[in-house]
Amino acid sequence: MNMQKIIDAVRGFDGVLVITPQAGGPYPELSWGDAYFYYAPDGRMPERTQPYGTIITKNYPDDESSALDTPGRFRVNIHVGQGKADPLVAADAQPTDVDVFQPHPLYGTAGWVCVIDPAARTSDTVLALLRDAHESARARADRRARRG
C-alpha cells in the first residue's frame, strides 16, 4: 500500500483534516512530504490537540531508528492507546522491519504503534486502526465541547 492510498482513505473519514505540508507552505521544512491526521470538522487545525495519526517520510532528530532516509520508505504512526498497542506489536520486530506492527520508537509507551511500508500483512489493519483512532479523536472532541 502506498502513502497516497492511505491519505485518500483517511480523507474519506467524516470531519477529518489531513495536513500534507509542501515546500513553500506555512509549515516547517522538516515536515514537508509528511501527512498529519486530525479530527477537525471545522477544517481548522486544532490548537491544543496532537494528530491521531501521521505518515513520516524521513528521519527526524532523535528518531532515526526506522531508517526513513531510504528513498521511498515511509512509516505510518497511529495512536491506538496502550491497551490496544501491546497485542499488536511483533515481539521480535527490529526497528527497520517492514510490514509489521511495532511500538513507535519515541511514543510507544504512550500507546502509539507504527508500521514501515505497510503491505499485505498490515495494510487492512492500518486502515482500520486509523479509523478507530479517528473515532476516538471525535469522542474526545465531543467530550471537550460538552464541558465547554
UniProtKB/TrEMBL annotation:
It holds the Pfam family DUF6194. The lineage of its organism: Bacteria, Bacillati, Actinomycetota, Actinomycetes, Micrococcales. Residues 1-145 form the DUF6194 domain. This is DUF6194 domain-containing protein.
